[in-house]
Amino acid sequence: MSSLHHRHLAVSPDWLALYYRHPLEITHGEGRHVWDADGNRYLDFFGGILTTMTAHALPEVTKAVTEQAGRIIHSSTLYLNRPMVELAERVASLSGIPDARVFFTTSGTEANDTALLLATAYRRSNQILAMRNSYHGRSFSAVSITGNHAWSPTALSPLQTLYVHGGVRSRGPYAHLSDEEFIAACVADLEDLLGHTRDAAALIAEPIQGVGGFTSPPDGLYAAFREVLDRHGILWISDEVQTGWGRTGEHFWGWQAHAENGPPDIVTFAKGIGNGMSIGGVIARADVMNCLDANSISTFGGSPVTMAAGLANLSYLLEHDLQGNARRVGGLLTERLRAIAAGSESVREVRGRGLMIGIELVKPGTDEANPEAASAVLEAAREGGLLIGKGGGHNTSVLRIAPPLSLSIPEAEEGAAILADALRAAG
């Protein structure tokens, strides 16, 4: 055990998890690669949990942060803040929400917490509809709407949460149905649920469930839900903390795969927009955002330095069509991984979109989740020079692959080859 690991254990909570039997200290990065304290170089296919969206040490972001820090680092939302207004304008225009308002936070957890505050105040109800297998953050309110036992440490809650079918296509009671039948069954379940409860405030849903193992419903499910929600006046919150900014390749926002009946009432975002800087936020139409009847500020949300980073990062993403790159390179990587999986009895499914790909592992010849295999592949991939993540619903048995959106084809091929070796090594 390293000296730093000893020190970490002495001052950190027991529940603060670390990857790997011998935890890794990352000291620096460049492009799609990072280096550890021993000088080992790794191809990064996880990006600090989908946060390093464009590239490590992106010069444009580094320059923007340095220049802004040289002027002023902090002022709070009590003063006019030009970088914050400029980023809010860009985010609002990209959101697809008419007359959008934007509020910046410091994390996705805080963004979802704010969205829940807005929805419950607007609807005067503390009932929330959430998806099974979901994850929305680590605050008291966010864990109370998390439909994933491994990430929900308390049954106490300020909210009454009701869980809806549909976030997982290939498991559960409707898995055997066609996409059209699956959607119809989930809508019927939602209708039935609403017949047994008081007025709900909102449905919150990740278009692709992140911690849940990159699972998703058929396209159009949330559009079909929207018809039901609108009849009841229930708001739709799309949690885009992991799917936003073009990561799925096909769409800029994950909700756009379900856009038939219009955009969500509220969108939450974080992670990739800051490329590692601490940015989260909420986008909502004006009447929803303005419904609070008490003062509210953010001391650190929208800080000049993080906003400067977000502006530079978003500009780079758009100017270099990283959404298109995610679609092209992600499509090739998915095909390569599916070819590898075809030769493995341990891989149940390769799924995802763009550069958001999950590989679900099972015990050979069964449908039973295999978290031990996922941990073994994680270790073997590291030994081969590749960093990946893991997740999943009932058991953590899904390998999560989400590299920076600037990933090149040779890097995708290299990562796939390392993964193939890791899967073989792990049995």
How would you describe this structure to a colleague?
The structure is a single chain. The protein is an alpha/beta fold and 427 residues long. Helix content is 37%, strand content 16%. It contains 13 helices and 15 strands. The strands form three sheets. Strands 4-10-9-8-7-5-6 form a seven-stranded mixed beta sheet, sandwiched between helices. The chain is globular, with a radius of gyration of 21 Å. It starts with a helix and ends with a helix. The relative contact order is 0.16. The mean pLDDT is 95.
Detail the topology: elements first, then pairings.
Blueprint (H helix, E strand, L loop, with lengths): L2 H9 L14 E5 L2 E4 L4 E4 L2 H4 L8 H13 L10 H14 L4 E6 L2 H16 L3 E5 L8 H4 L16 E5 L14 H16 L7 E4 L15 H12 L2 E5 L26 E4 L10 E6 H4 L14 H16 L2 H20 L5 E7 L2 E6 L9 H13 L2 E2 L1 E3 L6 E4 L7 H17 L2
Parallel strand pairs: 3-13, 5-6, 5-7, 7-8, 8-9
Antiparallel strand pairs: 1-2, 2-3, 4-10, 9-10, 11-12, 12-15, 14-15
In what range is the share of β-strand residues? 15-25%
Q: List unreliable stretches of 5+ residues.
A: none
**Helix percentage range:** 25-40%
Side by side, the strands of the main sheet go 4-10-9-8-7-5-6
Gap between N and C termini: 27 Å
Helix/sheet category:
alpha/beta
**Secondary-structure element order, as H and E?**
HEEEHHHEHEHEHEHEEEHHHEEHEEEH
What would you call the shape? Answer: globular
* Number of distinct beta strands: 15
Descriptors:
globular; single chain; alpha/beta; 13 helices; 37% helix; 15 strands; 427 residues
Write a concise synopsis of the structure shown.
Helix content is 37%, strand content 16%.
